[in-house]
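Entry:
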Amino acid sequence: MINDILAEQTYDVDTVSGATFSSSGIMDAVADALESGQNESSQPVDSDKDDAAGGENGSESGRLEAISPLKDVDGFHPQNVGKMYIGEKTLLPCTPKGIIRILEELGFGDLTGKKAVVFGRSNIVGKPIAKLLLDKNATVTICHSKTKNIIEEARQADIIVSATGQAKLVKKEWIKEGAVVIDVGMNRDEQGKYD
């Protein structure tokens, strides 16, 4: 259905496979199709934008609620967050779900009694991964900028998830032998390249 919509419109900036497109035109067409219900699949939300960035729904909460919970691929809609926290089946935030998958692939499917330390308390990664780790019976500690003794917390961890956006926060000396460290932060170096 989206291909039909895109085929009816003219795009004029970038050349892809012999056709010319503008990214804003594509995004407008996709957003129109999603909002009109012509596509029953998923709909991403850019929750990093603040109100000053021109969010047309006002607050972040308003933008999140404007998305159908059935199309919320990030699991940010308040209904999906609530369902996750009470243990009902729902769309889960993709990064935390991916972290659990990585742990399973590494042979850490049973986290019962494991100590997990999460650095970061964001609604995007920190809090949801803490919940998913709890669901796997791990003992979870969330560390943030006000946490005292973060080094000691890290040294006790079987699993460390760093989701702070601060490059190289977790030091080698903090990690006990056999611990798994997953850094999901996206950080840029001095040249603006991702670290």
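Residues 23-35 form the longest helix (13 residues).
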